[in-house]
Amino acid sequence: MSSAPFMQLYVGDYLADTLHLTTEQHGAYLLLLMTMWRNGASLPNDPAKLARVCRVSPKRWQQIWAEISEFFAIEGEVITNARLTKEHQKAVSISQERKTAGKKGGTANALKNINAREAIATAELKHSQISEPDIRE
């Protein structure tokens, strides 16, 4: 599972590159991109698995792949998409930076709260001395 919680889609760039695709090919391409995103920016280069991801028969997959393969690079046993890989790395980096900043802020806030509680507790001890009962004889 990907540690990148969001995937940006640059609609203008996407459409400029894919206007020649059919609706079915768009669907297959987007399903592959989204599945790659969730799997760390790559998928196994296994036609049967890719056909299942795209929800088409293996025979239909061959026809679709012939049209959309131009968007992918085969790297050994996996397929990748250059733009998706770049955007995925950027999103993971941003997510990590925000996580680190959040931890810093949370730690500082927690220390501030602990110090405030200690100050209040000390002040309460000073002002709430136990008084001796008033005994009149």
From TrEMBL:
Tell me where on the tree of life, at the top rank, the source sits. Answer: Bacteria
| InterPro entries per the UniProt record, alphabetical | DUF1376
What's the protein called, per UniProt? DUF1376 domain-containing protein
